[in-house]
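Hi V.,

Quick status before I head out on leave. The structure for the redesign project is tokenized and pasted below; the design run finished overnight.
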């Protein structure tokens, strides 16, 4: 029998802390390239100016070690844990939360987590939202995703009837984008999950946002739908910052999964232009 590889949760804690800073201070390279491509195709002069300012803002954040946005997000953590890994040294979830506390304090990030009714701030941006998957292998792959309120508030989940089909899915996605307008700080990125169940679709829609912009979906059906939805979204004319133009979205990522014969779940997770996320493999 192979000996499980031991990973101390303190390493996960410290990695989460570092990635919190990187995610809020450094624009992902694929997002920067997408913004630059958008400048080359945006027909609106105002839209091009907005895209240029977004890139300039990212450069200032990087050079001055400052957050790209005053909303530093609620920390969402995805953990893919290899089934041959033995975690030692304490409670995994507490280690993740301590990493969030340390990261938000160390990098001077705004703490935005509060009680839902009293609105009393927890003071340290915890608890984080943690999604754990068990996968083959002896490594831990983790992503830190600081999700801002403006984009999250525009996200939707629908429990469609099977008769609504693909047409209904496309209509609801465009309806979500049009209702959001300028609120999620476009150009946006959409994570779209079809099938599964109510809760499963929401999780998959958010995880879909981790894909690299410009990557090709290995599922031909999903890839075709991504291309069609991106075209439809960019026809809305919302444009950068909601000021009009062609580039309303930088990308659409679709995840299709079988579902119950009586249901058709659809989740649309809206992400702002910064698409903040950083990852590490331990």
């Amino acid at each position: 029998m192979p000996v499980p590889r031991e990973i101390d949760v303190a390493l996960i804690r410290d990695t989460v802390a570092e990635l919190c800073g990187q995610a809020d201070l450094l624009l992902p390279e694929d997002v920067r390239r997408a913004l630059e491509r958008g400048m080359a195709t945006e027909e609106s002069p105002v839209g091009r100016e907005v895209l240029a300012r977004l890139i300039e803002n990212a450069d200032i954040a990087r050079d001055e070690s400052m957050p790209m946005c005053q909303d530093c997000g609620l920390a969402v953590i995805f953990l893919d844990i290899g089934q041959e890994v033995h975690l030692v040294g304490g409670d995994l979830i507490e280690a993740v939360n301590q990493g969030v506390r340390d990261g938000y304090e160390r990098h001077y990030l705004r703490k935005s987590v509060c009680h839902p009714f009293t609105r009393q701030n927890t003071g340290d941006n915890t608890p984080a939202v943690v999604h754990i998957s068990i996968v083959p292998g002896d490594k831990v792959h983790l992503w830190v995703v600081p999700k801002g309120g403006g984009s999250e508030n525009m996200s939707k989940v629908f429990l469609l009837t099977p008769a609504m089909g693909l047409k209904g899915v496309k209509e609801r996605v465009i309806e979500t984008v049009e209702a959001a307008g300028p609120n999620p700080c476009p150009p946006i990125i959409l994570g779209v999950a079809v099938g599964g169940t109510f809760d499963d679709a929401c999780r998959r829609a958010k995880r879909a946002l981790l894909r690299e912009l410009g990557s090709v979906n290995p599922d031909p059906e999903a890839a075709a739908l991504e291309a069609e939805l991106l075209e439809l979204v960019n026809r809305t004319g919302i444009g950068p910052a909601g000021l009009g133009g062609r580039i309303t979205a930088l990308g659409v990522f679709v995840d299709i999964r079988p579902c119950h014969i009586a249901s058709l779940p659809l989740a649309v997770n809206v992400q702002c232009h910064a698409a903040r996320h950083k990852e590490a493999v331990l």
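Above is the designed sequence. DSSP finds eight helices and ten strands in the chain.

G. will cover questions while I'm gone.

Best,
W.
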